[in-house]
Amino acid sequence: MSSRQYYIYVMTNKGNTVLYTGVTANLVKRVYEHKQKIVEGFTKKYNINKLVYYETFDDPENAILREKQIKAGSRRKKIKLIERMNPGWKDLYDKIASPR
Questions:
Q1: Does any domain span residue 15?
Q2: Could you give the 3-state DSSP secondary structure of residue 17?
Q3: Are the C-beta atoms of residues 8 and 23 closer than 8 Å to each other?
């Protein structure tokens, strides 16, 4: 039995106009890569640098299914999801990156 965790996450840009949903086994590292624009692609092109939502899973299959579910939803549904956890659309990166 693995104790590894998996995450789905939603990031946005400064104006909260573009939403990006992803899945990873290392949330801190992946968000850092988006923020530093290390990887070419959508998040670099649209300046996606703010973590506004995430969920934790114990297995990759459920994380991937949830990612697909969120991606398939409307922008309105994604906004409601974010605002339930993070009504101020604050960047949650410092919360996850700080040692506990």
A1: yes
A2: coil
A3: yes
Q: Which domain holds residue 61?
A: 6-97
**Strands 6-12 vs 50-57: parallel, antiparallel or unpaired:** antiparallel
What's the pTM value of the predicted model, to 2 decimals?
0.93
Map residue 24 onto helix, strand or coil. strand
Please tell me the total count of domains within the chain.
1
**CATH for 13:** 3.40.1440.10
**What are the tokens at 3?**
């104790």
36 burial type by CB count under 10 A (0-12 exposed, 13-18 middle, 19+ buried): exposed
- The whole-angstrom separation of Cα 10 and Cα 26 is 14
Q: Which of 31, 54, 53, 55 is nearest to 43 (CA)?
A: 31
Residue at 1 is within a domain:
no
Let me know if residue 85 belongs to a domain.
yes
pLDDT per position as a tens digit, 61-86? 999 999 999 999 999 999 999 999 99
